[in-house]
Amino acid sequence: MLSVSDSVDAAIVRTAWQELWQYTTPEIAQRLLGALLVHATADGLLVGRIVETEAYSSDDPACHGVRTLADGSTVHRCTPRNTAMFGPPGRAYVYFTYGAHYLLNVVTQPAGQPEAVLIRAVEPLEGISNMCTRRGTAVVTQLTNGPGKLTQAFGITGTYNGHDLSQPPLRILPGDSLPVAEIAVATRIGISRATTRPWRFYVRQSPWISKR
DNA sequence: AGAATGATCCTCT
DNA sequence: GAGGATCATTCTC
Question: Which nucleotides of C are covered by protein (CB under 7 A)?
Fold first, then answer.
């Protein structure tokens, strides 16, 4: 049974969600800080607050939708793995790497323009004991402080690749933008190309981020 | 068909 | 701080 206030709340969230995609990808990465990642599982609700993100753009050699040619130029390349990146904004791009980890991205630009925001860390809010079970640890600060860790804690796998993140069971609920003073800017982690772009964003002094 | 690479994590020292 | 695990994806031959 849906109450009137629930409907109003849903409309507000829907508006904030759709307005997000008019910004550039680095701007969206900052605006996703503070948003809630929500997964409704058979074992219960899992909720986390996003505290760390990275932007990947369509002119960015580090982006999965971009290929660097021998002459140093870059082209867009749609492949079976990165197809979701070429789809509409607001969808998930989930991929598997290092033979072990799923990484969750949010597609940010209109279809054909491969850009996305990697969710690198969240602050666990609800379903923490469930997350501990999934992660195999009781150390709460180690549950979701990395892109591979948080997908394991939340039970997010490749089945969500292409999923509309405004819809259950896996959603992102935008919140108010953080004050600029609370947002730290740094270079991205774990990449070998375009390493100097300042496109990693995190909540300053948060104990839940992956790395200082 | 073969080889290289990787938006990571964990376990050491 | 360094190195290994582990395998899907992608490119090259």
Answer: 5-12
